[in-house]
Amino acid sequence: MKQKTIGRNPLEEYLSSKESNELATASLQEQQTLESNQQDNLLPSSSKQRITLYISSDVIDRVKNAVYWEPGLTLAAFAEDALFKALSELEAERGKPFAQRKERKLRGGRPLN
What we know:
Elements: H1 10-39, H2 57-69, H3 75-94
């Protein structure tokens, strides 16, 4: 039987270590996001819903830049955190939370402006 001259394949070793590092990094980022949400009393909800908004292009560009440069941050997490903080400020100004709306659905459609 012919003996291998190089031993282990260095490419396989590199790829397997890279995959394990990526999995560890992703797991760490998820844990950091969860801890951050818990610190803000914003526990991730088990049921999520989609919402469509029209936002000015310059704000969208700034948000995308922020998400790009912040490791582990997603657009969804950024938007949820920003909406939570804005809603908390509005409720603090009013002195109480908003009452439950009478109709479950809001009227949709494009803005008229």
